[in-house]
Amino acid sequence: MDAHDGEEDDFEPEEPDEFDDEEDVENEDDLFGVTSDARTICHLCGGAGFIANPTAAVISGTPRTVDNGRECPHCNGARKFPGLVPPV
């Protein structure tokens, strides 16, 4: 005998949620998102805002290379340029 014999299944599929009709809001923090304005991601840092700056250091008596990074000199940390900027 089955444990579910004589029981009705009360499963009802949920109705799909209505899509919100909100305006498309552009997020300035979304570097790789689609925007209505043309922009170019920095060619030097690749949109990170900083570049590698390896420095020799001694940590716990062991010589190592530490990479703290530094602000990108091309975009000054802005990560992108307005408009289309060809690589030079």
UniProtKB/TrEMBL annotation:
Region (Disordered): 1-33
InterPro entries, sorted: HSP_DnaJ_Cys-rich_dom_sf (IPR036410)
Alphabetical list of SUPFAM superfamilies matching this protein: DnaJ/Hsp40 cysteine-rich domain (SSF57938)
Bias kind Acidic residues: ranges: 1-31
Domain of life: Bacteria
Protein name: Uncharacterized protein
Organism expressing this protein natively: Saccharothrix yanglingensis
